[in-house]
Structure formats: C-alpha cells, structure tokens
C-alpha cells in the first residue's frame, strides 16, 4: 500500500472501522495528466481524474472548527459526500469520529491539508464540485498580530485560487457581520488585528475570482448553544443589513448544508444570518430565495444610475403636444 495514503484504525461508537484518510500531496501525479500549461492534474487512489468535478462532493475547509465540524455532519446527514480538509488528522478523528456513525463511512474522507501551503490544496480538493470555507484565525492566535491576515485572508485566498484552478463549481465562504459595513457591536471584532478588514478582502477575492459563490456572514456565535434554534428562528438578510445579532453555529451549519444542496438558490448571494425569537419559523430554502443575487443587483444598479443621470442632465422638453400618448 502506498504509504502516503494512511488508513489508521479508530474506534468509533464502539465499532471498529476505517475512516479514510488522504494525505494531500502534490507528488501524487497522474502519469497521463502531467502538466497542461500552468495547471497540474493529480490523481488519488480510487478516484477518477480530479478534473471531473461532482457537486455532490463537498470539500469543507476548517472541518475541525466549531462551524466546520457541524457542517460536515449536516452535509453527511443530507446525503452529500464530504472531503473534510484538516490540519490535524488526530484532532479530526476525535471531533468528527465520535458523531459520524459507521454507516456513512463511505461518505466522509478526511484530507490532510494546511491552507497556508498552496501547493497542497488542489490535490486535496479532489473531485469536489463545491467548497465550503469555514476557517478562521483562532483564539490561540490572539497574540499573533499576523493571525487574521494569514488565515482569514491569505489562506482563504489560497483556497479560492486553487478552487478556481480546479474548476470547482461553487464556493461558499463564511465571514462575519460587519465586513463591509461599520456598526456596533460587530465592528468591535476589528480589535482582533483588523480581522473584519481581512475577511472583507477575502470576500472581494472570491467575488473577483469569477467562481459562482455564496458568502455567509453570521452574527455572534460565541454564546448561543446548539439549543438556540429551539427558541430563536433564523433570519437572513442581504449584505450590510445587520451590525448586531446572534446565531448558533449549528444554525449556520444547517444553512451551509442547505446551500450546498440548493446551489442555484444561493448563487452569487451575500447573506447575513442572525436568529431571533420574533422571527417566524420558515424553511431555509424560502429564506434563501428572498436574498437578491449580486449579479442581478449589479446589473440593475448601473441602469438605475443612467436613468437618474438622464433625468438630471436632460433639459426639460418643451413640446406643443402632450407627451402622453393618451389624449387629455
Ligand atoms: N465566533 C463568532 O462569534 C463568529 C462570528 C462571526 C463569524 N465568525 C467566523 O466564522 C468562522 C468559523 O468560526 P468557528 O467558530 O467555527 O472557528 P474555529 O472553531 O476557530 O475554527 C477555525 C477552523 O479553521 C481551521 N484553520 C485555521 N487555519 C487553517 C489553515 N491554515 N489551514 C486549514 N485550516 C485552518 C482550524 O483548524 P485547526 O483545528 O487545525 O486549528 C479550525 O478548523 C470563522 O471565520 C470566524 O471568524 C465567528
């Protein structure tokens, strides 16, 4: 067996089975598919050519995180296959293993991938047609002034570039309220070494990439537990609506899984997510439909400006005949 592809035995739910672990490495190159221009094609054992992207396969970056781990579980529950991108296989096994039951064994692969190492990423994506990025500089990095720059911006940008190069079909990025609108309390987050500024730059890199995208900006997630949704229903709004509000990590994970299952409903949308006791209980799909696509907003905006410009610059038309087609 190729030593690059390790399959450690682990004990889950008192049952022995193997959780597939793939070491993402750029040396796993397919002999037939060496370089095509600047692009490299790689092949992992048991997979087809990685260029064939499958939107039922979702790569989750940050799969050991609070949102990412819940997202992996929701995706698997919904029937999609997951490539869980992690920096530590041991951590992933203990976080994901305990709650992923053995019968979904073939739906989940754990992929060793550090997004600060760009050369690892494209092969880690494999045949994923969808990427969810839920990474973030952690509290451990609170004393590291470069943390948010390195992780929330550079590492995210590395993933966007690899996804673009790999011709991924849809990229879902988790950022935060307050990335492009100043307001309290969200803007206080910038005290963490300008984290919202770096997240805003990551959002821009994604939009500029030309990939189909969804950006999810959650409210505060520190306090709400998974039980939050029993008393607080999700509310979604277009970009730059909220500067405060809370939502649970589980609610965000459920939203991310819903997006992965309904890509067209969420294409080129920027969603802000909070949960409130006063919000009505509605399906996630219904909430998604109501958010305008940025493509449509951008297409409509210039037209509106032209109309306004015409109205401002054009001198009043003096006519002897009524302008209305209808006689007075
Ligand atoms: N907390 C809030 O109230 C709040 C509010 C709004 C938005 N957000 C944002 O929501 C996102 C998810 O939050 P969370 O609470 O789930 O964060 P989290 O628990 O800190 O998880 C962060 C994840 O990012 C991973 N990661 C960091 N650097 C990486 C790298 N170089 N390569 C690959 N993975 C890397 C971590 O991996 P390791 O396990 O290996 O460290 C971890 O899995 C973050 O962007 C956060 O800023 C948070």
UniProtKB/TrEMBL annotation:
Keyword Metal-binding belongs to the record: no
Keyword annotations for this protein, in alphabetical order, are:
Chloroplast, Plastid, Signal, Transit peptide
Q: Which InterPro entries match?
A: NAD(P)-bd_dom, NAD(P)-bd_dom_sf, TIC62
> Ranges for the NAD(P)-binding domain?
62-261
| UniProt subcellular location | Plastid, Chloroplast
Keyword check for Cell membrane, yes or no. no
Give the signal sequence positions.
1-24
What's one GO-annotated cellular component? chloroplast thylakoid membrane
The entry's protein name is NAD(P)-binding domain-containing protein
- Species source reads Selaginella moellendorffii (Spikemoss)
Q: What is the lineage of its organism?
A: Eukaryota, Viridiplantae, Streptophyta, Embryophyta, Tracheophyta
């Amino acid at each position: 067996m190729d030593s690059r592809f390790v399959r450690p035995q682990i004990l889950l739910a008192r049952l022995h089975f193997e959780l597939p672990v793939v070491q993402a490495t750029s040396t796993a190159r397919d002999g037939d598919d060496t370089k095509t221009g600047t692009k490299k094609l790689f092949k992992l054992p048991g997979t087809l050519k990685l260029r064939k992207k499958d939107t039922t396969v979702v790569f989750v970056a940050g799969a050991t995180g609070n949102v990412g781990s819940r997202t992996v579980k929701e995706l698997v529950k919904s029937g999609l296959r997951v490539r869980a991108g992690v920096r530590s296989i041991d951590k992933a096994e203990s976080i994901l293993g305990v709650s992923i039951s053995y019968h979904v064994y073939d739906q989940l692969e754990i992929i060793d991938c550090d997004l600060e190492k760009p050369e690892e990423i494209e092969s880690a994506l494999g045949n994923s047609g969808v990427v969810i990025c839920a990474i973030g500089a952690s509290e451990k990095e609170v004393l590291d002034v470069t943390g948010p720059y390195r992780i929330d911006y550079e590492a995210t940008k590395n993933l966007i570039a690899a996804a673009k190069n790999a011709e991924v079909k849809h990229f879902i990025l988790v950022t935060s309220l307050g990335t492009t609108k100043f307001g309290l309390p969200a803007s206080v987050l910038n005290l963490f070494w300008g984290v919202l500024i770096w997240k805003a730059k990551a959002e821009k890199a994604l939009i500029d990439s030309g990939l189909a995208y969804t950006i999810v900006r959650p409210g505060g997630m520190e306090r709400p537990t998974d039980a939050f949704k029993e008393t607080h229903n999700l509310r979604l709004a277009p970009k730059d609506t909220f500067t405060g509000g809370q939502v649970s990590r589980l609610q965000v994970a459920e939203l991310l899984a819903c997006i992965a299952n309904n890509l067209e409903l969420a294409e080129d949308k920027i969603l802000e997510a909070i949960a409130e006791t006063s919000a009505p209980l509605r399906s996630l799909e219904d909430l998604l439909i109501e958010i305008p696509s940025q493509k449509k907003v951008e297409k409509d905006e210039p037209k509106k400006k032209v109309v306004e410009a015409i109205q401002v610059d054009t001198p009043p038309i003096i006519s002897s005949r009524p302008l209305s087609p209808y006689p007075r």
